[in-house]
Amino acid sequence: AAAGGTVELGCGAQGDPAPRVQWHKERGDLPWGRHEVDREHTLRLFAVTPADGGTYVCTAQSQLGSAAATARLRV
């Protein structure tokens, strides 16, 4: 991703009942004040910097168990 741009990371999680979806960064925190997660569980990072690079993890949990997927971001 180019520094200063917006990045979107998708996370397709479905189930009945609907799973609870959370995003986190493997090492560090999500950029404070520069991220949002929409209703489709897409993580948006705004005005990315090289410090935002790393591995992001989407975790979906329900009564039936949990699943996780990762995305690697390079800025």
From TrEMBL:
Region (Disordered): 1-21
Entry GO MF terms: cell-cell adhesion mediator activity
Cellular component terms per the entry's GO annotation: axon; plasma membrane
Residue runs in coiled coils: none
GO BP, one annotated term: axon guidance
Keyword Repeat found: yes
Domain Ig-like: 1-75
Record field: transmembrane: none
Gene3D superfamilies: Immunoglobulins (2.60.40.10)
Primary location group: membrane
Highest taxon of source: Eukaryota
Cellular compartment(s): Cell membrane
KW Glycoprotein (keyword) present: yes
InterPro entries: Ig-like_dom (IPR007110), Ig-like_dom_sf (IPR036179), Ig-like_fold (IPR013783), Ig_I-set (IPR013098), Ig_sub (IPR003599), Ig_sub2 (IPR003598)
Keyword line: Cell membrane, Disulfide bond, Glycoprotein, Immunoglobulin domain, Membrane, Repeat
Name of the protein this chain belongs to: ROBO2 protein
Annotated source species: Pampusana beccarii (Western bronze ground-dove)
Lineage: Eukaryota, Metazoa, Chordata, Craniata, Vertebrata
Gene: Robo2_3
